[in-house]
Each structure stands twice: as structure tokens, then as C-alpha cells.
Specification:
Oligomer: single chain
Largest sheet: 8 strands, antiparallel
Shape: elongated
Pfam families: FMN_bind_2
Protein name: FMN-binding negative transcriptional regulator
Structural class: alpha+beta
Length: 209
């Protein structure tokens, strides 16, 4: 990924927060048929042995047959993004030398993928994913809430996925290359909008100096 220095994000807490807040990832790999990709939620986990991403796919999805265990893959997490109009820039009135752009935050995770076929391992992955995504429910749903026979049937229809992380790279393109008056005016313009993505982007933007 091309990352100019002023857009680089290396803070581990910030990178982890974006992954947790925007877990629906694009997973890409290069196989015998060329480059391919799929889309799935992934959970970031850490341990003494290193960081991992966990997920699962349908057994009918041939990715677990096409990609050998240990092969390199790339997981892309897309954070908030916004079109930035030239009208947002305070300097437009001064000299007019402004053009549209797109602001965004993304995280690229590179690592080696391993597929899990053991029912107990798959169940552990599902429990971790469910615990994360049910955490905002008044009464969180758990796998044990479904009939065991039904659960066992579903477990036979999926394959677990573990990505052992080699590197995490972030790019926060948030108008840092603009003069301070434009950074302020972009923030003000986004503040006037009511959509969730604008609010999320403002939360990521550093305070103008």
C-alpha cells in the first residue's frame, strides 16, 4: 500500500480499534487461478504467541481447497470514508487552487492463513466471534442457546480460518497535507453532516494546530 509519511498510522491501539469497529474485511490471496478475494467478518485476537485474525467460511467455499495452509494472504479493513468537496476548503476563496479528494482510514493485515476442520476448534472460533458481536445486546445470544443437534449440523458445514499476523499497516488520509485553515474547515463541513461515517471520521481527525 502506498502510504505517504503524513498519512501513516502505526499506533497499535488505533489500528486495533479500527479492526474491531469495522470487522467486515476483504481477504485477498494469489492462487493458481490468479488473484482472488472474499468478504467476511474477522476477529482480532492477541496472545503470547502473536496476534491472529479468526473467522470462518462455508465448506462449499473452495478457498480452503485453493489456498494451502501457511500461504500468505492480505486482509483489508475499511474504516470511515468521505468525499471531500473543494467547497470544504477555506482557501478556495483566496486562490481557487483546490480540487476534490477522498478521505479514508484503512488497515492492511498481512499474514499466513490456516484452515480449521476440527469441530471443537471451529466452535471456539464461533464463540469468540459471537461474544464480540453480541456484546451490545441486553441479553447476548450464545451458541449454547441453539439446539445442540442443530449446532453440530452447522459446524459440519463450515471451515474455521486463522490468520497468523506478520504485519499491520494503517493509512489515515484525513487532510493532514492541507494547511491548518483547511483542516479546520473540513472538520466543520463534516460536523454539519448527520451521517455516521462523517462523525466517525471526525473522531479520527487530529485537532488542527
Amino acid at each position: 500500500m502506498y502510504v505517504p509519511k503524513h498519512f501513516s498510522q502505526s499506533d497499535a491501539d488505533e489500528l486495533g480499534a479500527l479492526i474491531r469497529d469495522h470487522p467486515f474485511a476483504t481477504l485477498a490471496w494469489s492462487g493458481s487461478d490468479g488473484v482472488d478475494a472474499m468478504h467476511l467478518p474477522l476477529l482480532l485476537c492477541g496472545s503470547d504467541s502473536g496476534q491472529r485474525l479468526l473467522g470462518h467460511v462455508a465448506k462449499a467455499n473452495s478457498v480452503w481447497q485453493a489456498v494451502p495452509d501457511g500461504d500468505p494472504v492480505l486482509a483489508i479493513f475499511h474504516g470511515p470514508n468521505q468525499y471531500i468537496s473543494p467547497n470544504y476548503y477555506a482557501t478556495k476563496q483566496e486562490h481557487g487552487r483546490v480540487v476534490p479528494t477522498w478521505n479514508y482510514a484503512v488497515v492492511h493485515v498481512r499474514g499466513r492463513v490456516y484452515f480449521k476442520h476440527d469441530a471443537d476448534e471451529i466452535r471456539t472460533i464461533l464463540q469468540a466471534l459471537t461474544s464480540q458481536h453480541e456484546s451490545d445486546q441486553r441479553k447476548p445470544w450464545g451458541i449454547e442457546d441453539a439446539p445442540e443437534k442443530y449446532t453440530r449440523t452447522l459446524l459440519r458445514a463450515i471451515v474455521g480460518l486463522e490468520l497468523q499476523i506478520d504485519s499491520i499497516e494503517g493509512k489515515w488520509k484525513l487532510s493532514q497535507n492541507q494547511p491548518v485553515e483547511n483542516r479546520r474547515s473540513v472538520r466543520d463541513a463534516l460536523s454539519s453532516k448527520s451521517d455516521t461515517s462523517s462523525a466517525q471520521m471526525i473522531a479520527l481527525m487530529p485537532d488542527p494546530e
